[in-house]
Specification:
With 306 residues, this protein is of the alpha/beta class. The chain has 13 helices and 6 strands. It has a 4-stranded parallel β-sheet with strand order 3-4-5-6. A two-stranded antiparallel ribbon has the order 1-2. The longest helix is centred in the middle third of the chain and has 23 residues.
């Protein structure tokens, strides 16, 4: 068991060491949070901490309490090129073999995926895109922007959207938006903003959400620059992941459920303190005051340090 833990720890260490040396994770950037790394590698937080400890010991990162690890390794462009040569040259034969085997390894999987998405589904998607394209043109003629949604934006039973499932980190993955499909959808319809699915849900989460930030980056890179990437279900996501999603490309975040329930609890306490003796306009004013202060804190997070 110890050997297995050491092996997984080495995998995490090698993965982030390589990304740092090759410039994928640059000086001053933050690594994902421990739960995020643990979810990606299917490992316990203790093993993740051991890998981060080694990275810190070897001068790659800085680990601080209650903060994500920060990259402190600095390298010039020439040094990164040298690091890349040291990494890839010994692996040259293996890379060539993999490329040559691509037709055997990848094409059958792609063909199966295409077949599993039946013609009816494709036709329905194309029909929806055609209708949305026409609608978007009418809206734009009236100077109205259009936001669409692609993927399955999940909802919980506490939400007003009519959902009934307590989504987990694993079950929610089947709802995720495909980056290339998002790009095609945005180009064909001309919508101004596209809400995508990468781990969020409407309503109250069954467990703390774990966002696929790399998917957000891929969607942002694939879609037209003028199309905004939208994040729904933002209110139950921790500040760190919200900031990461914004940095990755989300420029609109929908935020309601947790703020609304917090306001309800506050008003309940407000009324209890007064034995229920309050005029309706006083309750309204107190609700407004609470929501305003709450929103200020949320907007501070959305500013993302700017």
């Amino acid at each position: 068991m110890v050997e297995n833990a050491d092996l997984i720890c080495n995998l995490v260490y090698d993965y982030y060491e390589t990304r740092i040396l090759l410039g994928a994770c640059r000086y001053g950037e933050n690594l994902p949070a421990i739960p995020r790394i643990g979810g990606s590698f299917q490992m316990a937080p203790r093993t993740v901490r051991a890998a981060l400890s080694r990275l810190e010991k070897n001068g790659y990162i800085e680990v601080s309490p209650r903060k994500t690890a920060k990259v402190i390794y600095q390298a010039s462009a020439d040094q990164i090129k040298e690091n890349a040569a040291l990494y890839f040259v010994p692996r040259c034969s293996g890379i060539i073999d993999f490329c040559q085997a691509g037709k055997l390894l990848i094409e059958p999987v792609w063909e199966y995926a295409q077949k599993s998405y039946d013609k009816e589904s494709w036709d329905r998607l194309k029909e929806n895109m055609a209708k949305l394209k026409e609608f978007t043109k009418i809206a734009h003629d009236l100077n109205i922007t259009v936001e669409a949604e692609l993927g399955i934006m999940t909802s919980t039973e506490e939400d007003s959207h009519g959902g009934s499932i307590g989504w987990t980190h694993e079950s929610i993955k089947k709802t995720f938006t495909d980056p290339q499909q998002a790009a095609e959808f945005a180009r064909e319809t001309g919508v101004d903003a596209l809400a995508v699915c990468f781990g969020t849900a409407h309503g109250i989460y069954a467990e703390p959400p774990l966002l696929d930030i790399e998917r957000v980056k891929a969607i942002r890179a694939a879609m037209p620059k003028e199309t905004r990437v939208v994040m729904h279900g933002g209110s139950g996501v921790d500040e760190e992941q919200v900031r990461a999603a914004i940095t990755a490309g989300c420029s609109k975040v929908n935020y309601y459920s947790y703020m609304a329930t917090a306001a309800s609890r506050h008003i309940q306490e407000y009324l209890n303190e007064r034995d229920g003796k309050a005029f309706w306009h006083e309750v309204e004013e107190e609700s407004y005051r609470f929501m305003k202060e709450y929103a200020k804190g949320v907007l501070t997070v959305f500013k993302n340090g700017k």
